[in-house]
Design goal:
The chain folds into 3 domains: 279 residues, Aldolase class I (TIM Barrel), CATH 3.20.20.70; 86 residues, no CATH class; 119 residues, Alpha-isopropylmalate synthase LeuA, regulatory domain (Double Stranded RNA Binding Domain), CATH 3.30.160.270. Helix content is 42%, strand content 21%. The protein has 18 helices and 18 strands. Bound molecules: 3-methyl-2-oxobutanoic acid and zinc ion. 3-methyl-2-oxobutanoic acid binds next to strand 6 and strand 7.
């Protein structure tokens, strides 16, 4: 069966959207999971945009791109030759590196943004591809704003870059303007008109401004596109990119219609989605297709009746297909390390050594507090541990005094680099008091911009997951924390945001943008 290349841009287009920025460690964590998900290409960053993005792309190439069966590791670059050099410096460590170079081809962009003529842009595109090909065989070219570009001119550029050595031509609907039938026709016409097109893979990259990104991407397949650029949870510039999980599950569920397949291990989808939410602090909406909380929940009596009699009545996919458990009771307080390790492995977390020790301790603490430990609790706990353990400050101890007619106060102990720090604070409520105590210890003052709490499972003893957005002197950072104690979860969430600021010394300043 025909194979579609899944090109994941969560760490590049996704990450560049406000509120989704990730540091090197977070990108690495995500990239490892994307490799387990078995995507074909990971676009790890835009190396020229900042030193931090360069470092993150390089580390993904070094640490993920060298694994057995690793995906292609790609870096984005404008057509400037210096940009391409920098991109290569970052991706060259991967077993299979790719340089993705782009320039706008629409008259709107040429006139107002680039202030260049069509001839100049064509020449720069060819030089860029030639320069990139001198470094590696795998070069991708994108004519930015393709959906609004003059068709004949864009085809001239595409013919010229294929001649110069581009092996993938990616057609972006940069502003999410296209409509499925029109987009499919455009891709078909490109395949007819562009010289040498048979030597290149035709790819699409669709934005979701009109809610058409997935539909446009899928429509392009009928016209022969064989690479789809997409992002987990549909994150990306503005309204986002085409959602990876929707594309992959549409292709799997409607194989009868599309007649193509992907290499994605769909059982990893839910975990990948959760990890991304955890790292960025941004939850997906409950009714989000495939990975939303309600995606498999049947509420209406008539639906429940049907599903109980035969799942096929209302379910076109199984929760297990995306690696989602049905809240099975798994472990109790007498379960040992081996049982935890085996269950975590089944859930996709292959932990060993110190990571497993930390997870086991967190599990024991949880099992002491909570009678029944569900898979969902474990996922919340482990993803929380994974990100907390990377931080500079670790919560050691917390004591809160709160109630009616008392001024809430808190004492907090934090650990950092083997040292322990303690301080106290008062506030409007217990969470405010805890955050004041943390600020007193760290000397970094954060202003809480957003605070949300949700239960990982049902029941009064459920693990609470807190997401925060904190403004640290003009830089807004997200954080997440989990615990059966919502005050502790709040402290952990705040600390995870604070740790991101502390780690990102010499914070990112984006110098350029696509
Ligand atoms: O949306 C866009 O045009 C892009 C390109 C860099 C491919 O992200
Ligand atoms: Zn884009």
């Amino acid at each position: 069966m025909d194979r579609v290349i899944i090109f994941d841009t969560t760490l590049r287009d996704g990450e560049q959207a406000p509120g989704f920025s990730m540091n090197t460690m977070e990108k690495l964590e995500m990239a490892r999971q994307l490799a387990r998900l078995n995507v074909d290409v990971i676009e790890a960053g835009f190396p020229i945009s900042s030193d931090e993005d360069f470092e993150a792309t390089r580390e993904v190439a070094r640490q993920v791109g060298t694994l057995d069966g690793a995906p292609i590791i790609c870096g984005l670059s404008r057509v400037g030759l210096g940009d391409i050099d920098r991109c290569w410096e970052a991706v060259k460590y991967a077993r299979r590196p790719r340089i993705h170079t782009f320039v706008a081809t629409s008259d709107i962009h040429l006139k107002y943004k680039l202030r260049k003529s069509r001839a100049e842009v064509l020449k720069a595109s060819v030089e860029a591809v030639r320069h990139a090909r001198a470094y590696c065989d795998d070069v991708e070219f994108s004519p930015e704003d393709a959906s609004r570009s003059d068709f004949d001119y864009m085809c001239d550029v595409l013919s010229a870059v294929i001649d110069a050595g581009a092996r993938t031509i990616n057609i972006p609907d940069t502003v999410g303007y296209a409509i499925p039938r029109e987009w499919a026709e455009r891709i078909a016409r490109i395949r007819e008109k562009v010289d040498g097109v048979e030597k290149a893979v035709v790819s699409v990259h669709c934005h979701n401004d009109l809610g058409q990104a997935v539909a446009n991407s899928l429509a392009a397949l009928a016209s022969g596109a064989r690479q789809i650029e997409c992002a987990m949870n549909g994150i990306g510039e503005r309204a986002g990119n085409a959602s990876l999980e929707e594309i992959v599950m549409a292709l799997r569920t409607r194989k009868d219609f599309f007649g193509v397949e992907t290499g994605v291990k769909t059982e990893e989808l839910f975990k990948t989605s959760r990890l991304l939410s955890h790292i960025t602090g941004v939850h997906v909406q409950p009714n989000k297709a495939v990975v939303g909380e309600n995606a498999f929940a049947h509420e209406a009596g008539i639906h429940q009746d049907g599903v109980l009699k035969e799942k096929l009545t209302y379910e076109i996919m199984k929760p297990e297909d995306i690696g989602r458990s049905s809240n099975k009771l798994v472990l109790g307080k007498h379960s040992g390390r081996a049982a935890l390790s085996a269950r975590l492995k089944e859930l996709g977390f292959d932990l060993a050594g110190g990571d497993l020790d930390r997870a086991f301790k967190a599990f024991k603490d949880l099992a002491d507090r909570k009678k029944e430990v569900y898979d969902e609790d474990l996922v919340a706990l482990v993803t929380d541990e994974m990100t907390q353990s990377e931080g500079a400050y670790v919560l050691d101890y917390l004591h809160v005094l709160s109630g009616t007619n008392v001024i809430p106060s808190a004492t907090v102990k934090l650990r950092k680099d083997g040292q322990t720090f303690q301080d106290s604070g008062i506030g409007d409520g217990p969470v405010d008091a805890v955050l004041a105590a943390i600020d007193a210890i760290t000397g970094v003052k954060g202003r809480l911009q957003d605070y949300a709490i949700r239960a990982a499972t049902s029941g009064k003893d459920a693990v609470g997951e807190v997401s925060v957005k904190v403004d640290f002197d003009g830089t807004v950072v997200s954080g997440k924390g989990a615990s059966t104690d919502v005050i502790e979860a709040s402290a952990r969430a705040y600390l995870s945001a604070l740790n991101r600021i502390v780690r990102a010394s010499g914070q990112r300043t984006r110098e350029v943008g696509p």
